[in-house]
Write a structure and sequence with these properties.
With 168 residues, the chain is of the alpha/beta class. 25% of the residues lie in helices and 20% in strands. A 5-stranded mixed sheet has the order 2-1-3-5-4. α1 packs across α3 (99-110). The radius of gyration is 17 Å and the shape is globular.
């Protein structure tokens, strides 16, 4: 059933530029023992969504996201969409929470997702409310769709068109 204004896939044109994901860089050099968990959390987001790609910052490059280890509770301080600081707090790790789930969850905040507590283990953004036994580090369908919507305007525009988002 077609309606006016319905979106349709454009025909494939081998000469047309492909849409590119917005690249958001992260610096996990101060994430101490959580470095591998942070890299895995970023990889999970890269496997899960198309409109944004998390990449480690190159040497000397200012990162969009700083990831730090501390002794508090995990948290993310977002300055704008795709920018901020993530703290992988040892308090939750010492209580038995999974480091990869924590990393993916906190990166989810930087990608624009709020906490969804209480929630089931199938919801990444349910965070600690899913319990210590929950080790699921993957966003659910709704969470993926929300990130895609958040970064949808960041897709590379056709030649000659100015992008709608500024990347710091």
């Amino acid at each position: 059933m077609a309606t006016a204004g319905q979106a349709h896939a454009a025909p494939t044109d081998a000469h047309a530029p492909a849409l590119a994901a917005r690249v958001v860089t992260y610096d996990a050099s101060a994430s101490a023992e959580f470095r591998a968990a942070v890299d895995r959390g970023a990889a999970i987001w890269n496997e899960s969504v198309d409109s944004v790609e998390l990449r480690p910052a190159a040497a000397g490059q200012r990162a969009n996201i700083r990831v730090l280890a501390d002794n508090g509770w995990p948290r993310a301080l977002t300055t704008s969409l795709g920018n901020g600081t993530v703290y992988i707090g040892r308090q939750a790790v010492n209580q038995g929470y999974d480091t990869v789930r924590i990393s993916a969850h906190e990166l989810g905040h930087i990608l624009g997702l709020p906490d969804r507590k209480p929630g089931p283990c199938t919801s990444l953004m349910s965070g600690s409310s899913a319990g210590v036994s929950c080790t699921n580090p993957y966003p659910d369908t709704a969470e993926k769709a929300e990130v895609e919507d958040n970064f949808g305007l960041a897709l590379a525009p056709p030649a000659g068109v100015t992008a709608g988002m500024v990347v710091d």
